[in-house]
Amino acid sequence: MPHARKLAVVSKECVACECCMKVCPKGAIVVDRGMKAVLSPARCIGCGKCAAACPAGVITMSQRKDNAQ
Ligand code: SF4
Ligand code: SF4
């Protein structure tokens, strides 16, 4: 898994546009009640597609600190 050491992180400035949710290949990111994108770290493969798609630029890719897949 090439990006297994990366994890997407959503900041509180999320505007709930759902762009990230639509591009995530793993279903790792959902917009909770239209309020904010919420990430499931165990599903995220660190591909960076959500960060590239976010029009508000509020997703950053960080190094994982856990050992989730
Ligand atoms: S980095 Fe990839 S797998 Fe992780 S939440 Fe973003 S689009 Fe989904
Ligand atoms: S693409 Fe960015 S602004 Fe839109 S829901 Fe996802 S994190 Fe929030």
Radius of gyration: 11 Å
CATH class group: Alpha Beta
| Secondary-structure element string | EHEEHE
Write down how many β-strands occur, each being a DSSP E stretch of 2 or more residues: 4
- Low-confidence residue ranges: none
Q: Which percent bin holds the helix content? A: 10-25%
Structural class: alpha+beta
Number of domains: 1
How are the elements arranged and paired?
Blueprint lengths: L5 E5 L8 H5 L5 E4 L3 E4 L9 H5 L5 E5 L6
The protein binds iron/sulfur cluster (SF4) (2 copies).
The site of one iron/sulfur cluster (SF4) has 15 residues, from helix 1.
Give an overview of the whole structure.
The protein is an alpha+beta fold. It has a single domain (6-63), classed as 2-Layer Sandwich (Alpha-Beta Plaits), CATH 3.30.70. Helix content is 14%, strand content 26%. The protein has helices spanning 19-23, 49-53; strands at 6-10, 29-32, 36-39, 59-63. The strands form two sheets. The chain has a two-stranded antiparallel sheet. A hairpin with a 3-residue loop joins β2 and β3 (36-39). The chain is globular, with a radius of gyration of 11 Å. One iron/sulfur cluster is lined by residues 8, 23-24, 26, 28-29, 39, 44-50.
